[in-house]
Amino acid sequence: MAYEQNGRLPDHQNWPRPELLYSEALRELHATIESDWDSVKRSACQTAAGRALWKHVVNDQLAELFAGETYLTNLYEKIKNDRMSNAREVSGVILAVRTLWFESKLEAAVESFGGGAQVVLLGAGMDTRAYRLSCLKESDVYEIDFPEVLEMKETLLQTAINNSINPQSKSLTRIAADMREEDWFKKLQSSGFIPEKNTVWILEGIIYYLPHSQAMGVLKTIADNCSLTKTVLLADFMNKQSTTLSSSNSFHFYSDWPDHLLPTLGFSEVNLSQIGDPDADYGLLHDPLNLFNKLRGVPRSFQNHPDDGTPCCRLYLVQASGSPKTISS
């Protein structure tokens, strides 16, 4: 179904349904995920479900495979109920907007490097960009995540098509590493990463799961690369109030002012957007009274909305960059 350019979404009857064409082997693999993985690891499948069910705007043909029936069915029911009740915010819309924002910024960054950049996805989960983005055809892509996540990702691919699907990127390297441990960057280097080569770093849906000291360590490691080469960081940050949204207490790191924080680490230029801003809307948040547009009108220093006292839960989309030239000057 083509997305209507006037910003209207499909109604609940016409919303693209998940196909759920799973073999018994795939069902068993997803059952293992549901029984053995913790909430942080399972969030990779939940994100894939969001991309799959917003396929009228996000072109991710592998998303249903990685999501699994449980997450697809649960989210589809939420979307159907939201559309039936004319909810101002439809479930999964944040994932759709976030995906579109990251991909547009990634494509622009890679093009600014002449196409031959390194791309590092930290906490890659079930990300499929190396398989579907033509802008990565000259780029070396590195995916870092827990070993069981990366192993399951490869097993799902091979089980589904009986052979490995070829990525569009120049190369794709998966690195089993825990970002909470200090050796993740050494593992990245030993896998072929060249610190002196132009690099785009992606921290999507991951940094707020880390304890504060470890999140700051990851950001500092990336920022240090600015002294070696042209470096771009694409990341999403929660503010303090947003960390209370997790019923399992999974969210830890937050920054109310990431555009102030990142320059102190070594980035020379930082651009911040909120969901619903002109570059983070994509016609999906046109209702001026939806949650995201209401928040945009409230100063970021406010922790609670002045109209009703509800917490101001914000998600910031941030692009930061730096290079040896800007640092030395």
TrEMBL record:
Coiled-coil ranges from the UniProt annotation: none
Q: Name one GO biological process term.
A: methylation
PANTHER family from the UniProt entry: LEUCINE CARBOXYL METHYLTRANSFERASE (PTHR43619:SF8), S-ADENOSYL-L-METHIONINE-DEPENDENT METHYLTRANSFERASE YKTD-RELATED (PTHR43619)
> Cross-referenced InterPro entries, in alphabetical order?
Ppm1/Ppm2/Tcmp, SAM-dependent_MTases_sf, SAM_mthyl_Trfase_ML2640-like
- Family the entry assigns: Belongs to the UPF0677 family.
One GO MF term: methyltransferase activity
Q: Kindly indicate whether the keyword Phosphoprotein belongs to this entry.
A: no
Q: Which UniProt keywords apply?
A: Methyltransferase, Transferase
Q: Which Pfam families match?
A: LCM
Q: Does the keyword Transferase apply?
A: yes
Source species taxonomy: Eukaryota, Viridiplantae, Streptophyta, Embryophyta, Tracheophyta
Name this polypeptide is given: S-adenosyl-L-methionine-dependent methyltransferase
